[in-house]
Specification:
single chain, about 475 residues, alpha/beta, Rossmann fold, UDP-N-acetylmuramoyl-L-alanine:D-glutamate ligase, Protein-Tyrosine Phosphatase, Chain A, nine-stranded mixed sheet, six-stranded mixed sheet, 22 strands, globular
Length: about 475
Amino acid sequence: MVQLPSVDGVTVGVLGLGRSGLAVARVLGDAGARVVVWDDDAAARAGAEGLGLTLADLGRDRAWQGDDAPKRLIMSPGIPHLYPAPHPAVQLAWAAGAIVDNDVGLFFEAWAEEDSEPYDEPPRVICVTGSNGKSTTTALIAHILNHVGRHAQTGGNIGRAVFDLEEPDEGGVVVLELSSYQTELARRLAPDIAVFLNLSDDHLDRHAGRGGYFAAKARLFTHGAPDVSVIGTDQDEGRFLADRLEGQGGRIIRVSTGRKPSGLGWEISARKGFLSETRHAKQAASVDLRGALGLQGAHNWQNACAAWAVCRTMGLAPKVIEAALMTFPGLPHRAERVGEANGVVFVNDSKATNADAAEKALLMYDAVRWIAGGVPKAGGIDALRPLFGRIAKAYLIGEAADAFAATLGDIPHEICGDLATATRRAAEDAVAGDVVLLSPACASFDQFKSFEARGDAFRDLARGLIGAVGKG
């Protein structure tokens, strides 16, 4: 059972009843808290009632009055707690002097209470953050560890909520993907190993700009004080963070795919598909990543470098890590090859919800039938202009279609409106050697509930088209 003595007999409010909210409500109840829950969505509230949870509208004054008012508020990550404006429940919690936290902060609070006595080798927590590549790196670390018989499970912003994970066994590892929403609010962060990959303009309204966004991610290191920090240093933010951590007591491993090793301590770099590990400018290991079919492209080489660094600090030998890299299948919706018909390849990169992520996919191919659009992010696709020469034609969907069309200018493009039309039109125009690429550079919420739903829809459409060609 999770150890949370601080909540025993205490009223705790849970705001947001998605997978993380329901999991934390269950754990709090098991730990002896009086739990009251709320979600602004009526269907979510009905589901919670069906599970026997007690509802209280945490956005109204009366929920915070009386001796049994909440002393703590645990928020789901999608709900704003400061910018662009705090949820009313947060303002009421502040006024009542209640502690505002999230499930990640509570997880690390519980982790600190875990009794390490039963373990000869205590479990470890690895956390991965950054703008792009978090999910792949998280899954890759777990894949490598499981490949060598270490029980590793993933959660957080990928897959299972932190309180849905199994109790770790002897020498077990929990690998958490953490978004800026999660790291910014968590009152406690205490990873054994933490990874920072990169930063691109995303969620800027939620963090009041790029500086706030970076500060949210940097908290995992400056507040979390990991024993090992793996830092991507291809950008100024990463170099700043690595420098900031120097002399703080933890080990720093620098990761780069765009810079030569600097000779500063322990470094992992990848250039032209070859990964190299150096320590004080002396090569300790190398591997050819071009044979790793699930890790194609420079962005995936950065992910491989970060995972390599983590696993080396855990004592794994280079040859063992190399063998595991070659068997990694990749993740759905991340440059996922769906199939091929008449020499035309269909690729599902629905996870590319901003221009920086879409850039990685466009760099992988030379003749692209590009399906893009949805709910636009700040800056649109202007940063992708250097890659427009790779686009045979763009097929634009969703709210961003008109703005993307204006940015594309003379680049062939067509406003298709919806994904089904765009996929059909791209397939009709494509010739052998072309890639029909869904890499939207946008959020999905205008037409789909998630990027996964968008990617699933594209996969079904593409397979239908491929099947029709085969029958013909």
